[in-house]
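Quick one: Arm DNA-binding domain-containing protein from Novosphingobium pokkalii, structure tokens please.
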Amino acid sequence: MGERKSGLTASSVARAKPKDKAYKLSDYDGLYLLVKPTGARYWRMNYRFHNLQRTVTFGRYPELLLADARQRLLNARRLLADGIDPIDQAKLNKIQESISFANTFKTVSDEWLEKVQLCQSASNRGSDSNSVQI
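--- reply ---
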């Protein structure tokens, strides 16, 4: 078997300049770099899921390099092979992350509140012993 040749290289991605209209630089397996007239460059993939045309954006160049975009493409293709829509999965992951963050914040805030209440009750007990009851 021959080695698979990519349509893009890191240097060709870095040299991509904006034009009057947005254009695509194709890699392989559906990955492409969308270059917008503003100069913004996005890693994207078009796919069909349940007879709907969908486009997933993996990230922006240079924050997301070519090798990382290819890895995300591979992950998305694996999800599709398992019958899972990558866009829906990304939404579920964000929801799960926000819930776990909220739970973490709630746990920390509850612990802090409990400590404050213990300190206040301890200081109130100390002041009660110096007070006079009638």
